[in-house]
Design a protein that fits this description.
about 55% helix; 2 domains; alpha/beta; 6 helices; five-stranded mixed sheet
Length: about 150
């Protein structure tokens, strides 16, 4: 009987360790994941990227029909989230933009959807008098004045 009691006692002690080890690994893994998520700013990236679909909904609700929207940074979002007509301004130079205007390829209502960091580059490619007509966080809607 003593042998059986010893086996049961050792098995009980071992089963506690067997249960504790996976639980400890799980807790340590969760702690490491939470710390890495905070350190890498994953939640901040999600918030930062949410501006794209939000800006698409915002600008689509404000545009008159047959508007040509100039953009660069938001072009991918406009492609996937809307049916709007857009043109990447960074593919233009002042001469080609002027030709588009003179041949009336651009309608009377020409707008640009630009992030704050695009303004300087935008004006190098697309000259003219652009007036801000709306703003959503770090993105603004600009209209070409005649």
């Amino acid at each position: 009987m003593e042998g059986a009691a010893l086996v049961i006692e050792r098995w009980s002690a071992a089963s506690g360790a067997i249960l504790f080890a996976p639980l400890a690994v799980l807790v340590l893994t969760l702690v490491a994941e939470v710390r890495a998520t905070r350190h890498l700013g994953v939640i901040g990236v999600i918030r930062g990227q949410s501006i794209y679909p939000e800006a698409c909904r915002w600008v689509e609700a404000r545009l008159p029909p047959r508007t040509v929207l100039l953009t660069a940074q938001a072009s991918g979002a406009l492609e996937y989230y809307t049916d709007m007509t857009y043109l990447r301004y960074d593919w233009l130079d002042p001469g080609s933009f002027g030709r588009l205007q003179s041949k009336q390829k651009l309608t009377e209502c020409c707008l640009a959807l630009l992030f704050d960091n695009e303004l300087e580059d935008f004006h190098k490619h697309v000259p003219g008098r652009w007036v801000e007509v709306g703003e959503l966080h770090e993105v603004a809607l600009w209209k070409l004045e005649p």
